[in-house]
Design brief:
alpha+beta; Ribosomal Protein S5, domain 2; 12 strands; six-stranded mixed β-sheet; 263 residues
Length: 263
């Protein structure tokens, strides 16, 4: 279905949307399925409206980086699959895929959501490293927020695999009762500016009609850990402040939705 972007922009200026939602209303359902992969240490599938994203956590024992010998590490990757949109192709990650991974990574890393020192087993020799893979199943808009919830859910459900105390070999078929040392739970909310109005949870057509966007990651206390701007249009200080306030409010909403499925 071809949507006239000018129609979307005109409706936004009137405080309306094609699907009848309020400008700052998320689609439904918001659904979280946990432990969807038995090969991952933690996994989830999150659905917001028709957008579906999977996330999986793998843990490995590695040598710590030289500049942080007493800490573990984290890496987030994303794959925008052709299955999820005809706009994506197989092959190396594109710009959108790289940006998605970096935005989610920044929100978690800058919040210090994981106690990296507790991931260390032997300083300078051995530490746990966390790898998170994001995989899109259906891109119907708002991958940033959907992926952010999926990653957080996967991290919250992750448990260490069993390690042989004598050989040090990892048995990935068995998990311990020990979960990751999460200290904070940052939630990302992306606010879009469309023809002077601010909206959340856009459809694909609304994303393409937007002038700019701002992704804000915050914890349950409202402390902001990361802000990422996208789009060509500039944002004034007043607009930026308004978008941040919307994001903080909606982060509380998304956190409550997530907590219905995992605590």
């Amino acid at each position: 279905m071809i949507i006239n972007q000018e129609q979307i922009r005109e409706l936004a200026a009137q405080g309306k949307r094609l699907d009848g939602r309020e400008l700052q209303e998320y689609r439904s359902p918001i659904k979280v399925d946990l432990n969807i992969s038995w090969t991952a240490e933690g996994s989830s599938q999150v659905q917001i409206g028709e957008t579906v994203v999977m996330a999986g956590v793998k843990l490995s024992l590695e040598k710590p980086y030289n500049d942080t010998p007493d800490e573990g590490g984290i890496m987030i990757n994303s794959e925008l699959t052709p299955l999820s949109s005809s706009e994506y192709e197989s092959g190396p990650p594109g710009i959108k895929s790289i940006e998605l991974a970096r935005v989610i990574d920044r929100g978690i890393r800058e919040a210090k959501a994981i106690d990296m020192k507790k991931l260390c087993i032997t300083p300078g020799e051995k530490a746990w490293f966390v790898t998170v893979d994001i995989i899109t199943i259906n891109d119907a808009g708002n991958l940033f927020d959907t992926a952010g919830i999926a990653v957080l859910a996967a991290l919250k459900t992750a448990h260490y695999p069993v390690v042989n105390s004598e050989t040090g070999a990892i048995n990935y078929k068995e998990k311990t009762d020990q979960s990751l040392p999460l200290t904070k739970e940052p939630v990302s909310v992306t606010v879009y500016k469309v023809n002077g109005k601010f909206l959340v949870d856009p459809t694909i057509q609304e994303e393409k009609s937007a002038d700019a966007r701002l992704t804000i990651a915050s914890d349950k206390k409202g402390t902001i850990s990361a802000i990422q701007k996208g789009g060509d249009a500039p944002l004034s200080l007043e607009e930026t402040d308004a978008m941040i306030q919307i994001a903080l409010e909606k982060a509380t909403y998304l956190r409550k939705e997530l907590n219905k499925f995992v605590n």
